[in-house]
Amino acid sequence: MIEDYAGTAEMHGSGYWQLDGDPVPTEAGCAAFVAMTELTSTADLDGTRVPSTYFWIAATDGGPDDELVGFLHLRHLLNVVLFEAAGHIGYSVRPSARRQGHATRALALGVRAAAGLGIDQVLVTCDTDNEASRRTIEAGGGLFDDERHGKLRFWIPTSR
User: Which residue numbers delimit the N-acetyltransferase domain (predicted)?
Assistant: First the structure.
């Protein structure tokens, strides 16, 4: 999955920026990635992070070899920066697995997880020129709020 992204620029929701260097597609690299998500999901390392949960999106067919296709990051609350430009949920699907419904399914599961945390509505954003993400958010019940800092902002009620 990491190799399919061909770099980190589109790995939204992965948390890769918390790693010491770029993610490495090896067993040791995977272990480092998991350790990083566990550490940064509860710790406020620099005063800007909030408690959060990281998910890896799998293309599930019920078999033992479910393929990883992307990332989803659920932030449990919003600070000023997240309220303005990032929101509760960030996600991405690797290039070869796009346009197959994975992002829509993952976003729905992220919204359900937010409801389980007692969050009434989630803020989800996308770049103004990211038509695919905008459609995914709208398909997930996103209600357009406004545009700020080059981002479209949508609210999704968690009690649908």
Answer: 1-160
